[in-house]
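Q: Two folds, back to back.
A: First:
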Amino acid sequence: MSVTSSPLKAAAIQMASGTNVNANLLTIEKLLEEAARQGATLAVLPENFAYLGASGRDVLPYREVQGDGPLQHFLSQIAARLGIWIVGGTIPLEGEDAGRWRAASLVFDAEGREVARYDKQHLFDVTLPDSDEHYSESDAIEPGNEVVVVDSPIGRLGLAVCYDLRFPELFRAMVDRGAEVFALPAAFTAVTGRAHWEVLVRARAIENLAWVIAGAQGGFHVGGRETWGHSMVVDPWGSVLACQERGNGIAIATIDPAFQRATRRSFPCLDHRRLQCAADETE
């Protein structure tokens, strides 16, 4: 496909998912309809938008095979009905390990065709400081291992998910594959979000002179978990153009390729790099 050079709108979608899949999908549908009404060409959904339970293993009954399943059909159909591109947060897809699942972020074009898949690479196995919160995503999730960048109407789109945000080498690898915009579905905890969310999102934008569209979970969930929210669209200079702080809603802003080109041209830090990543050296 040809990538437009015209400014187009993109939306980061925010919600607080629970364990009722139908209710979650109804909420997402309404938010996507609102994004389309406001002129969004592309929308990024939160991580685990269809189901967020007390543990990762609760998701296993909803695991789908690649290319078939109610969640994939939902994303395909609504993308085609609204005529917008959708980065489908994450949904559980089968992997190689029968006891775990892949946290897959699927991209559907405006005709409802799946055009890309990214499996979350970095898994959130941490105990939060000064807190009794502990997470072990690797117990239930099988990590991916591919860098994914795809052409989209708003530019070359790189895909990452939540905890991936803390690993700048992944984002630099996407830039090396031509990424101009990053899509980041997420579900940051309230503790880590308050401390690090905005500074990390803005840092990935600044150091790569790229747009970031970050759709997040924001609110309270089963088991008492609280997510930070603050879904946002950030420009290549690190400015937050739109932010949905709490509750269901959308953050929408214009992605202007001319602004990015001018910024990269006048401030060419990507051309000034002295070190190459190990992955580049082995190619």
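A: Second:
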Amino acid sequence: MASEYGLKRHFNGDAARLIGGRIRAVHPEFDIEGYASDVERRIPGKELKDRVLVLAEGLRTRLPQDYPEAVALLLPILGDELAEGEGMFNASWFLMPVARFVEEYGLEHPEVSLDAIEEITKRHTGEYAIRPYIENHYEPTMRRVARWALSPSHNVRRLATEGIRSRLPWARTLTVFVKDPQPVLEILEPLRSDPSEYVRKSVANNLNDISKDAPEVALATALRWMRESPTPETTWIVKHALRTLVKKGDQQALAILGATGGEHLRVPRLEITPGSVTVGDTLVLSFDIENTDDRSHSVTVDYVVHHVRKNGRSIPKVFKLATLDLAAGERRTLHKTHMIKEVQTRRYYAGEHLVDIQANGLVKATERFGLRT
């Protein structure tokens, strides 16, 4: 398995031995080697989440069948709470199967499980484990989440917002919050100027999720927060929360962030060199942007590459370029380099690619380049 990459490569027999060794310190009869052997036998060909499930299933068959008793043996292995800035996937990645254990096997004991999730999230994360409890024990879970939002622990406050994201990556969509985001907004309210960057990032991501299904709700919330909480922390949250709407050119989102005068901007010149490239080459975008108004404006400039797909269609990808202030009548020249590089989430196809220059979300100029593969 030497060719494996990413987080999944860590979830193997060695991970089972690490977890098992900690369990044996409080549960001497735990079969470490049997656990590790079973994991090694079952993980080949499986991706991350399925590997983690294998490790959780191995715990279930080797710990006491009484769920509260099993959880009581797992909690002492968690270790110390993570400080601000300590990455859960660096310091405590091996606890993912413990969180999955609670997610999979604890629904009949919601209070015990929510207590466990609160402790797990201090050392790792409970953002996935909590979601079945929202779906199956909504009222008590949301009461607990409301308490978590007021916790002195930044890790627990972060769980309060991350665990209820409607469109959390790698997780099932919480349709209850897609249909009605108001319960989520009530949880976010006391966190809109949180001192922890870890929490603020989650609040921003949560409001960004809301903006995808209820943009008018997200915009109204962002505007109110900026008025009622004029702090750098709230400003940061709102800026990142509105990123999807900004990329779509939503003029209200841009206005909330201070971008003005989009209708007065023009790009009279756009050049892309070279005109033809291969993967690994670098493009240079050079263009002029002009404010034709008789007053100054704050401008957000992005560029959009329309990547050609296998079927000949194209998919736009927005890239940030610059934020600047243009005086009345000012014309400025901007340059940007863009590498056509391989990434895991994108495959390149030969063909003519379009590039747009957007000013305050409005397309002001378009040019093209050829890609050879």
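Q: And?
A: The longest strand covers residues 314-326.
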